[in-house]
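Design review, sub-item: ligand-bound model
Attendees: FS, YL, KQ
YL presented the inputs for the zinc ion complex:
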Amino acid sequence: LDHGSGGLASQELIENLFIKHLDNPILRNLEDSAILENKPGNIAFTTDSYVVDPLFFPGGDIGKLAVHGTINDLAMRGAEPQGLSLGLILEEGFSLDELERVIISVAEACREADVYVVTGDTKVVPRGKADKIFINTAGVGIVDPKLQISSKKARAGDSIILSGSMGDHGITIMSKQAGIAIDGNLRSDTMALHKMVAKLLAELPAGSIHTLRDPTRGGVATTLNEIAGNSKLEIELIEESLPIRANVRAACEMLGLDPLYLANEGKCLIIVSPEQTELALQILHKTKEGQEAVVIGSLKEGKAGRVLVTTPIGGARVVTPLHGEPLPRIC
Amino acid sequence: MKGVEIFIRGTVQGVGFRPFIYNLARQHGLSGTVCNTGDGVAIHTSCSKEELEAFIGAVRSKAPPLSRIQSIEHGPKEIEIEDGRFTISKSSGTSSADASIPPDIALCADCLSEMQDPNDPRFAYPFINCTNCGPRFTIVEKIPYDRQQTSMKVFPMCEACTRDYEDPGNRRFHAQPNACPLCGPQVSWHDQAGNKIETKSPLTDTAVALAANKLVAIRGLGGFHLSCNALEEKAVAQLRERKRRPHKPLAIMVQSIDIAKKYCFISEQEIALLSSIEHPIVLLQKRPDTDLAQGLAPHITELGIMLAYTPLHHLLFQESTCPQALVMTSGNSSGTPICTGNAEAIDRLGPIVDNFLLHNRDIVTRIDDSVTRVSGKKPLILRRARGYVPSPIHCKWTLPATIGCGGGLKSTFCLGKKNSLFTSQHIGDLSNLESYDFFQESIEHLKKVFDIEPEIAVCDLHPDYLSTHYAKALGIPLYQVQHHHAHATAVMAEHGLKDPVIAIILDGTGYGDDGTSWGGEILQADLTSFTRLAHLSHLRLPGGDKAATEPWRMGISALHSLYGDGLSDKNIPTALRQIERDKREPLLSMLNNNFNSPLTSSCGRLFDTVSSLLGICQKMSYEGQAAMELEDRARRCLNSTWKNDLISEDYDQFPFLLDDRGITWEINSLQLIKTVLDDIQMGKKTPEIALRFHLLLIKNITALTLQLCTQTGLNQVVLSGGCMQNAIILEGLRHTMATHNISVFTGENIPINDGGISLGQTITGGLQHVSRNSHEGNQGRG
Ligand SMILES: [Fe+3]
Ligand SMILES: [Mg+2]
Ligand SMILES: [Zn+2]
Ligand SMILES: [Zn+2]
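KQ shared the predicted structure:
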């Protein structure tokens, strides 16, 4: 890929690539903006940018992340996704083959999720001004105005369900970065969760689900700190109940990382009323995305904003939110 | 009438001060009154100038053993006195930081002999005490220190006790915890589930259980001890297993110096420290071939011993069946604070112990045993708790009401006001919830006890310490003090040093003002600012904090830095070849990719590295294990002239490096490590290599310090930081500095480890606040 005034040819190439792989009736118009059908409900609107090294990793790639991430952000407010935008920033010299792999991956993720790219844009910038490829996706969804899902809505006594194992995405990326050989089963969990969420909302009595959050950057620990802060409640996690795969645990041990802080791309935290916890688990277990869902803790009155993990011996420890890299603290 | 008021400040309440004044005034033929006030003790009398001087002289020279006089002021005053009489009048006023409550003091000789006298009303009574001994800080709810404000309030005194309490001539005059078997607290014997077992003598049962290698939780002064027979391998192994404490040394208690001498080599200074009124744990050199269980301190020849300090301990040892040496370790499960309440202990310790020896006097404030050692003939406090807390450190400077929130692991906090600095007892690792709760409760309690409402907060620069989170949430002006600067200023405050010093801080980890991890630092410091002059050259920490608990990572990391791609089995020492390849390879890969491998100038990690390369310790089960075991090996070949060798012998001294910016000097850590590797190659013995490493480090630090002293024109050196707990390093540096006529200061009353950080923060943050305010004030006027 090159960049600059002579870039017209490559621009065409890219557009062809889009149409070839992402084709759908709305995108095909190639107008300045996409027009979506007006459906009853409120509009949910979100955006996220994706930068990841490496671009391709076991279980996924940057393209899948970009689709799943934005769909999940819509799903976490209970919205039904209507369409995505796809913005690409490419570094001069980025290979067309790799770009095509990414676009194919985006297309696959869209088909599987039944949510499509309805508008897009591409820019190529000089070498060194970007790192291979950056993707921005925005998404629009429709949400039932009666749904009031928010991290402020968590109540004392509520259960915290995690829809599956913790840290799979983060450790996959980190292991690659550290250059350590990856055990065959270690793979990113990236997936779209809107269908699972829709099922949960449809089958549970109205108002049972108080909060939905996807614990992406900063992991379960950071997301729960936000929930505890917003709801002014204390969160207590039970260490033995935290779902961590043995290979993830072993890699964390080696790399000196804590699975509670690792990013997830296909999991969500579900804060549900205590009465409906059992039913919620039953529903989740019947879905592909939530078959390993477990209760990991609960909310209670106590010190507002605090997250604790209780261990079988040695009492409890405080789980603080992390800003940036963990820094050595043992004196 | 016209008279004089004499006002005495310091630790003068609850130490028999008023009866002392009463008796002294009568001897001097003075009439008047004495009373406690919120700030100290006030004496009203009328006498000539000469009489006054003689009286004040006698107050100073004869003051009761537990009192500490900070100041005596006097001035004319309109007074009312009954002619010819001297009386003790009622307390007045409210509490204030100036009227310190005394710490808890070991049983005194008078009480001990009464307790052993069958005709005494307090014969064999486990709670005997007087104004010269017994519980204080641990039973106080608030001040003024008065029985009704302590946990003794639920024990109304019997007639006889009341008489003693009210008689100014009696040793128990106003002894707040005064009690006897008729009216005071009692002990009781319980099974593992906490059910009371009826018995004539709970202490006999305890002794029998301990002799049968049972594990007993004993409720004491500031919390529970877990106790077992220290002479039986089986008993010690069982305690370690149940407490999940595989290696960390266990302290023992014995009844007398004579028995302690059977187990350890003890100097005059060490005897004095063991039997001081505080009765701390003293770290001593163990004799070879004693009948103590080897499991008390695996791989280490040092042993912590304390003497029986409560009447209950003495009565226990007097039982004929009781083992001569008992393990007495904090009654907690690993990592949590010491238990204090009966129900809490039964709940938490029940799964660990076989029996409980309980009592019914509430512990208001929990406190662990203090840990000390003698270094260079002076006592050093390494863990400041029972016996020392809450005695303040007095400083020369006037501080605003300040709270220093301390560090992360061996945490304490400090409340400062005016000239007094009150450092809390050892609190522990704040990441443990119970410790963090204990931290917050203690802050509230001490604020009340000393009547200090902090106006400013001070904390570390580390963003992830819970003490930092706590300080930031207080919502008052916040000052952040660099970790090693605080290590330095703690010592400066203790010794009243105002002028800039060279501070050698050998430490584990502290957050540097450049965002990297520091730990082997030479600073130029004054009380409010510092410059980093030099540091140990960087090592990498593969796995971050994981590398601080697994020395094998440091071993591999050093080899990687030395040999890079050339690293092969040939240059890996045998000790590390045993680490499986499937752990070694990923670690090298992390280092090659610079993944979670931050740089550090830590001295602690340098010790860990050498400990690993020598195969001494590859994985730690307690903080400081690798360094302690390394020191212990070195000690095995320490001869009596080692300090002189340090001066005379020509050890290699490596050229110092200048860092990238050409400003800061570096001691070449890798060169030190290379020497160790060469010695291993040559087949030298481990203790010899360990000692040579110690001496080389001292030598290099000394050489650079001398250069920096010349460069800066300073000749006062402060030694601090966790690694200075290494007695070889501390004494070695003291010796080399003294030889070059440099004055050396180190923390004596305040721990040189992170237990001292809060005090350093308080003085530095407090004075920064003062200077900022006066600066702003001046600007406002100008
Ligand atoms: Fe430190
Ligand atoms: Mg987002
Ligand atoms: Zn006494
Ligand atoms: Zn009595």
